[in-house]
Design goal:
Chain lengths: 496, 796
């Protein structure tokens, strides 16, 4: 064998070894082998490398799944700020009957309050200003604020018994997305990108789309660490798709440069880098050449996937008028479907503005209108394309809202503070049994049946993806970390 | 070894010494014995040596016990299963079961050892590790454990908890080696059957030492002068001059900012601005003065507790206040105050002890001898501030604070760059100066309790300032405050401080520490590749007065450092990760250096030291699209203009919840927590930044202008740019490639594949060339390509 040949032979192994060494990430790096421009390594479920196969796509560290998966991808419609379950899904007529009465201490039962209402001397109960009806074969109560969602009642599983420990936004959102209230851990999408890799060579496995609600346009902020890779390799960080000049940061060619010039430049760049490889034999150089090719492909694949002009009118009708306005929740839902079609693993939407401490009736009506039609349309659209059966759609926020009014309760107005002890979310898609799950007391304060913790939700999501949440670990600083930390039970009752 | 536990402290210290020698000896002996055919570990896929003839506890056994057994049979008393602990000999030899008729470990008798029975068992009830742990042992690992017991089942102290000892320096190879580093490295190379690489070329070495010491490359003129300089001391002179530059100080500070989780915002929710840059400027100042490491650290930990502290010493304590602080209305203040104290204590653990103290917050540490009590004893040193958990007014500077007035610039704070800050006039129009967060203890200490499961609202037993006894007991006569803590840290017999510091220094030059896990020197951390060298360096650093210049000079003067970085076939096969240093590593530049280099070689870099952070180009709308209703200066990113666009990256405004995107893409720490080691990744998003970030394109254009001014012929211009960016002269082949690239770009311009006016118009810097100039546009495009080269963003 010539020396060069030998070096090439070795580079396959070295690439992995060097990567492992340089990043101190252990086996974690293997999921991106194909992104590194080299064949990926087949792995057993423990992450054991068994063989290398050329040209086979991007594979995750898990290699094999722990059990057969029901879904291949997730679309998470995160409703940021804490949507009020009492106006949307958790119908509590007693609160209307006892409107204005003080929340009995026996019901509150020591629940810690946020600093925003802990100073109130009264906690006047308040019921929903909006009516509810039952929908679906396994009927769930859905409020008049969500008429389109009501139409897909037979496709969704409403959980009214979610709970969390966090009582404020930052820790609560961080908890849902990373399994820990304090920053530092990888987000769900990063975990999945790491574990499962991507089935699309030209798009990131984890994409993020943001929109701002009209109910409270200046509500709670977001933080990029919510789609951060934590201690995982930076290839697993969520890539934001933006309604901006650059749909992905730095995606567009420089002003005044066309594709042919860029291509020519890249060809020369590759040749020069190859010359460097001849000198140094460092496989990182080869992988850098491959990264530039991947970047080049993204420059085509990203604009392709986000250009929705050719979507037919009936699609725009389904998603609503907003779908034509880039950066709205509706437009993002449509993009989510297009990304799902391209097999993007984890599509994370954030819709801000659900934090109705005051003026709740007016604001929540706007928020609901922002998202109702498009959320339902997304489910219907996925269904008509046969994608719903292997996609999980998640709709929900970081906590619920109190059954008593924050601030003054008037005939037409009230607000609600954060409530961690019970709230609602819904799931739709592969492996999910539609209907209603979980129950709160007549005050809508405490869960009386089938509580579902944040970690239970995460464990269930992983389960649907074919992952055992207790076995899916990443060793960092000597400890094996899990998305579900040390908790989490699969909610088998909601599985079909 | 067991005896140690029963000896009194002083006896233990003497006994330890003896033990240490044997440990070091073992390091040596063991290394010699691990040759032979390679086998693959079925569990990890990693190549393994065959089970050694003589099994060593530290090297072979404990990594297995720690990783697979300690979780239920380790230091966490409350998690112990079947009353068996395997982290001490006493625990492992103890009689078990109701009848006390079994032992997990019977020395020399694997067949009588329950441990051996269990690890081979296939019965899920008795099998170890149990199936539900999701852990398993490979055949290799089982064999190691069995053989260890057959050879006596001896225990040794954890290597990192015994003080470094002076070892005999191996005899130098007469043909290779400049100092003791090389002697230790060469010895290992011999054992591994490797040869050192030849010395790197002068230009490669020059670029390496420039980038390593200053974060910036040498100018083409400097390279040329150095290459033709025949003075045998030329290199040493350059090293000395680099160490005295502000660039060096800034480069050192840059790493310290990541360790100190420094940022310009408070970090949670609305993420309001904070003013901590005077602390950052103190860090630069300290490095510029080559302040001894012990003083540097003591000022930061406890400057306020020194006798009659100066303002400088108090300012330095801002180190402990760089953690995130919440302004989120409605949080429970105590919950967050506890987080701040945790952050300070854990940062102390990671940065100075190389220990994961945070793992003992909710329960005893699972792997290391750090109890939950130890954790909260350390916590108590940092728990004595009159501070708020929740700050409500975004303009409030969270107490305790110090005030820096314009007057201070005339005294010990003369290094501060106060000119560009916003003036804060009081009622009489007199500038009040700035308020900065610092440390100040309350006169009556706040009580500290062990928090059940680490929860702020579940205090249990009261504890007092103390340090983990297994590392080093806290001397009675030291004050029980942060000053005492820093005295403890720099106590003569402290086993960790010098090793951890010197290892991090080593990491700067070799990409990887002698202990690869520079954040973890505990049982789950990596073992030192060169234990004697690590100890030698630790002692040299400590005994040399904690002098950073001295230790760095020593490293860069070694032949190990000066090697070529090309990989030979043999070296690749034997050492793909370059653990044994038969070559110099190739390292991708840091996020900061990649941008700074582009600015420097083009001449755009504005070399101003310190002052308020700046806002260079950033894609529009990034802050705005995530901001909430909090408003303030961090709601919307307004880029600076003029000189502030071209400052070093360490001065870029760091908003913690939306950090500068190109910096994160190149693996900069996000500043949420203390970070002592950054990843070095290689991703498509990095390619997009280098190809399309206006900062890089503008720098390419300005670099092309510079080349045009320096040289008249195209070939010479190309060679100039290439030398500026890569530090290397063009070979004939590369020169041809560059020329071909240039001509193709020229053709592209003629065919209107590039519109000069638009392309050259990128960036704020005024153009000195006509917009329709085809040749210049082609040169700019070529420079742009060169700035994307692997060689440019790598130090070879």
């Amino acid at each position: 064998m010539s020396e060069k040949k030998i070096i090439e032979e070795r580079s396959l192994q070295l690439n992995r070894r060097a990567f492992l060494g340089k990043t101190a990430l252990g086996i974690g790096g293997i999921g991106l082998a194909s992104l590194l421009g080299t064949p990926y390594f087949n792995t057993t479920k423990n992450g054991v490398i068994t063989s290398a196969t050329p040209n086979a796509g991007v594979k995750g560290s898990l290699g094999g799944l722990h059990h057969p998966a029901k879904i291949k991808r997730v679309i998470y419609l995160f409703q940021s700020g804490g949507p009020s379950q009492l106006e949307l899904f958790d119908y509590k007529p007693m609160l209307n009957k006892r409107r204005g009465e003080d929340l009995p201490e026996s019901i509150r039962n020591g629940q810690r309050l946020t600093g925003m209402t802990s100073g109130q001397d009264k906690f006047p109960l308040v019921g929903s200003q909006f009516n509810f009806k039952q929908y679906g074969n396994n009927p769930a109560w859905i409020s008049d604020l969500l008429p389109y969602t009501a139409k897909v009642a037979d496709d969704i599983c409403v959980i009214n018994s979610m709970y969390t420990e966090a009582i404020n936004h930052d820790p609560a959102v961080t908890f849902f997305q990373t399994g820990s209230q304090q920053p530092g851990r990888p987000s769900i999408g990063s975990w999945l990108s790491y574990g499962l890799g991507s089935e699309n060579d030209n798009l990131p496995a984890f994409t993020v789309l943001l929109s701002r609600g009209t109910g409270r346009p200046n509500g709670q902020p977001l933080y990029t660490r919510l789609w951060g890779n934590g201690f995982l390799h930076s290839l697993h960080q969520g890539v934001q798709f933006r309604a901006a000049k650059d749909p992905v940061l730095y995606l567009n060619d420089p002003d005044g440069m066309n594709k042919a010039t860029k291509r020519n430049m890249l060809d020369h760049l590759a040749a020069l880098n190859d010359a460097g490889y001849e000198d140094y034999g460092d496989p990182e150089i080869k992988s850098r050449i491959a990264q530039y090719e991947m970047a080049y492909r993204m420059q085509t694949s990203v604009p392709d996937v986000i250009s929705t002009e050719k979507e037919p009118d009936y699609i725009y009708k389904m998603y609503g008028a907003d779908a034509k306005i880039p950066g709205t929740f509706a437009a993002n839902c449509l993009l989510a479907r297009r990304l799902a079609e391209k097999d993007v693993r984890f599509i994370q939407l954030y819709h801000m503005g659900w934090d109705q401490h005051e003026n709740l009736p007016g604001a929540i009506a706007k928020q609901a209108k922002d998202v109702d039609q498009a959320s339902a349309a997304l489910i219907m659209d996925l269904k008509q394309r046969g994608l719903l059966e292997d996609t999980l759609v998640v709709w929900g926020g970081e906590f619920g809202r109190t059954n008593y009014s924050q601030g003054l309760l008037t005939d037409t107005n009230y607000g609600r503070d954060h409530h961690p002890r019970s709230f609602s979310m819904y799931l739709a898609g592969g492996g999910i049994k539609p209907g209603l799950y979980g129950k709160t007391d007549d005050f809508g304060y405490n869960i009386v049946e089938n509580p579902v913790h944040v970690h239970d939700f995460q464990a269930t999501m992983l389960h649907l993806l074919g992952i055992d949440h207790e076995k899916f670990t990443y060793k960092h600083q000597g400890r094996r970390f899990r998305l579900t930390d040390v908790e989490g039970k699969i909610v088998r009752d909601i599985l079909s | 070894m067991r005896l140690l536990y029963y000896l009194s402290k002083t006896q233990a210290a003497t006994a330890k010494l003896g033990v240490l020698f044997s440990i070091i000896l073992l390091f040596v002996v063991v290394a010699c014995q691990t040759k032979g055919p390679k086998i693959k570990d079925v569990n990890t896929g990693m190549l393994l040596e065959k089970v050694p003839d003589s099994v060593d506890f530290t090297f072979h056994v404990k990594p297995i016990l720690s990783d697979r057994c300690f979780k239920c049979h380790g230091p966490d008393k409350n998690a112990l299963q079947g009353s068996l602990s395997l982290h001490t000999a006493a625990g492992a030899y103890m009689a078990l079961g109701k009848a006390k008729d079994r032992q997990a470990l019977v020395p020399f008798k694997p067949e009588a050892s329950e441990l051996v029975v269990r690890i081979h068992s296939t019965d899920p009830i008795t099998q170890m590790p149990p199936p539900e742990s999701n852990l398993s042992l490979s055949e290799y690992e089982k064999e190691v454990l069995e053989k260890w017991i057959a050879q006596g089942g001896n225990y040794q102290e954890h290597w990192a908890f015994s003080p470094p000892t002076a070892e005999k320096v191996p005899n130098l190879n007469p043909s290779w080696g400049a100092n003791e580093i090389d002697a230790f490295v060469y010895k290992k190379l011999l054992e591994k059957g490797l040869d050192p690489s030849e010395a790197a070329s002068k230009e490669v070495l020059l670029r390496r030492v420039f980038l390593d010491l200053t974060g910036l490359p040498p100018s083409p003129e400097t390279v040329k002068a150095f290459v033709s300089n025949t003075d045998p001391n030329a290199y040493d002179k350059i090293v000395d001059s680099l160490l005295s530059t502000a660039d060096y100080a800034e480069h050192m500070a840059s790493e310290w900012l990541a360790i100190s989780r420094y940022a310009d915002t408070h970090g949670y929710q609305d993420d309001f601005e904070r003013t901590m840059w005077p602390w950052r400027d103190w860090v630069i100042h300290a490095f510029k003065e080559n302040m001894p490491y012990n003083t540097f650290v003591t000022y930061q930990l406890a400057g306020d507790l020194l006798p009659n502290p100066t303002k400088e010493q108090i300012l330095a304590t801002g180190f402990n206040r760089n953690h995130k602080i919440t302004f989120e209305g409605g949080v429970i203040p105590e919950e967050y105050r506890v987080e701040y104290v945790e952050d300070r204590a854990n940062t102390f653990g990671t940065a100075f002890l190389g220990m994961t103290m945070e793992c003992a917050r909710c329960h005893d540490h699972k792997y290391d001898p750090i109890s939950q009590k130890n954790h909260f004893e350390l916590f108590s040193f940092f728990n004595n501030l009159d501070e708020k958990g929740l700050v409500s007014d975004r303009n409030e500077v969270p107490a305790p604070t110090m005030r820096i007035t314009p007057e201070d610039q005339k005294g010990v704070l003369a290094f501060l760059n106060l000119q560009e800050r916003q003036k804060m006039p009081d009622n009489n129009g007199i500038d009040k100066g700035m308020e900065i967060m610092v440390m100040q203890d309350m006169p009556i200490a706040r009580k500290t309790f062990i928090l059940n499961r680490g929860a702020y609202d579940q205090p249990t037993t009261e504890v007092f300032p103390n340090t983990p006894e297994k590392i080093l007991p806290f001397p009675e006569h030291f004050p029980k405050n942060r000053l005492g803590l820093s005295q403890w840290l720099f106590a003569e017999e402290h086993p960790l401080t010098a090793r951890v510091a010197v290892n991090r220094i080593w990491q700067r030059f070799f990409g990887q520490g002698l202990v690869a896990s520079s954040y973890d020197f505990g049982n789950q951390g990596s073992l030192p590749t060169h234990p004697e060298l690590l100890d030698f360096m630790a002692l040299k650093f400590k005994d040399g007065g904690w002098d950073l210049h001295k230790i760095m000079r020593f490293i860069v003067q070694s032949d190990t450092y000066k090697q070529n970085s090309a990989v030979s076939e043999k070296a690749l096969q034997l050492d793909p990760e370059n653990k044994w240093l038969a070559r110099a590593p190739r390292l991708r530049l840091s996020a900061e250096s990649i941008r700074d280099q582009a600015l420097a070689i083009s001449g755009l870099l504005v070399r101003k030291i310190g002052g308020p952070s700046v806002k260079p180009y950033q894609p529009e709308g990034l802050w705005k699209e995530t901001t909430g209703g909090g408003g303030g200066s961090t709601a919307n990113y307004v880029p600076d203009t003029g000189a502030s666009l071209y400052r070093k990256s360490m001065y870029t405004f760091w908003k913690r919840t939306v950090p500068p995107p190109s910096m994160l893409t190149f693996d900069a720490s996000n500043r949420d927590l203390c970070s002592v080691k950054s990843q070095q990744t290689n991703t498509p998003l990095q390619a997009l930044v280098l190809l399309n970030d206006p900062q890089i394109i503008e720098a390419s254009r300005v670099l092309a202008e510079k080349a045009t001014k320096k040289e008249t012929k195209v070939a010479a211009q190309l060679a100039y740019i290439y030398l500026a960016a890569t530090g290397q002269f063009t070979t004939k082949k590369v020169a041809e490639q560059l020329l071909a690239l240039y001509h193709d770009m020229e053709q592209q311009v003629l065919e209107e594949g590039v519109l000069p006016e638009a392309y050259l118009g990128i960036g704020e810097k005024e153009r000195s060339f006509k917009e329709k100039d085809t040749a210049f546009t082609a040169l700019s495009l070529t420079a742009h390509t060169i700035l994307n080269l692997d060689l440019t963003i790598t130090r070879s």
